[in-house]
Amino acid sequence: MVTYRELSKRVRVFKSLTGVTVAEFDELYEKVQPIWFANEIKRLSRRARKRAIGGGRDYTLELRERLLMTLVWLKLYLTVDALGFFFGVSGSTASRNTRNILPVLRQLGDESLGWPEPPKRGQGKNIEQALQTYPDLLAIVDATEQRVRRSSDAHIQREHYSGKKKGHTRKTQIIVNEQGRIRDVSSSTPGRVHDLEHFRKSGSAQKIPKQVGVAGDAGSQGLHNELPDHSVGTAHKARRNRPLTEDEKAINREFSSMRIVVENTICELKHFRALSECFRHVVDRYDETFRAVVAIVNPRIARRVAVLT
């Protein structure tokens, strides 16, 4: 049976199974504890509950083991029966445990998003201090798609069919700063929705500070119309009977080298197989799963940036 005590002694295996180091897990556990207990008290105090607090069966596994189980599920995307076998519980118990932990991770993921407030007059910061504290000079927009199960409903099936991916997908937009830290994550939409329409529906235009420039890929042509108060740049796009000129190709190469940070961030998210393999669960759980992984990846990027600066 997999336990934290035994697994933490084998650091390489620990990271292979969970996607995080032992130190990262311990830090995450400290953040999870107060949120989970607050949610648990709220659940047990609901009006419809007939038992007093303390009544009922206790959890089979401790909170630390349940968090470990959830990270293993996110990293390896095992079936609940296989997950339960490794942790010595039934598949239904493993399913309940992960469903209870995911909302906590989602809350942590949401708390890691957002732009810092820019320095105000009188704060006495020089340029170097301001750039270190408020590094965001650029917001880089990109969308990622993940395959989902084909629905038996014809309408839902058509909505989720992505001509780009030649399959049924769910699309999510992320916005990162120039260092790769995630500042915004949209609600997911069916893969058929165009990237620009997805941006329009996401409400991200109202969240990006006006002093921050915005960069999009070739699929974001027209992004400047959604952000009239921002400085916006997008890659040149070849069209029928109008290939790109050599100058436009050179500009696109420079643009791609600047935008590579968002691709690297998406790659870090997709190291967790729950976001890279075909999503087996109902799409209503997709956003919660995506933001749970953000809770793991975003602090890691922030720590890496802090070391570099």
Structure, explained:
With 309 residues, the chain is α/β, with parallel strands linked by helices. The protein has 12 helices and 7 strands. The chain has helices at 4-7, 11-18, 22-44, 63-76, 80-87, 91-111, 127-133, 154-160, 195-202, 223-226, 246-270, 286-308; strands at 138-147, 161-162, 167-176, 182-185, 189-190, 213-216, 232-234. Strands 1, 2, 3, 4, 5, 6 and 7 form a 7-stranded mixed beta sheet that branches. Helix 10 links the parallel strand 6 and strand 7. Helix 5 packs across helix 6. The longest helix has 25 residues, at 246-270. The radius of gyration is 22 Å and the shape is globular.
List keywords for this structure.
309 residues; globular; alpha/beta; single chain
Task: Please render the helix and strand layout as text.
Layout: H1 4-7, H2 11-18, H3 22-44, H4 63-76, H5 80-87, H6 91-111, H7 127-133, E1 138-147, H8 154-160, E2 161-162, E3 167-176, E4 182-185, E5 189-190, H9 195-202, E6 213-216, H10 223-226, E7 232-234, H11 246-270, H12 286-308
Parallel strand pairs: 1-6, 6-7
Antiparallel strand pairs: 1-3, 2-3, 3-4, 3-5
Helix pairs in contact: 3-4, 3-6, 4-6, 5-6, 6-12
Global mean pLDDT: 88
Total beta strand runs: 7
How large is the share of residues in beta strands?
Answer: 5-15%
**Secondary-structure element sequence?**
HHHHHHHEHEEEEHEHEHH
Structure classification: alpha/beta
Residues in helix, %: 40-55%
Identify the overall geometry: globular
First-residue to last-residue Cα separation:
42 Å
The main sheet comes to: 7 strands, mixed
Number of helices: 12
Low-pLDDT sequence parts: none
Rg over C-alpha atoms, rounded to the nearest angstrom: 22 Å
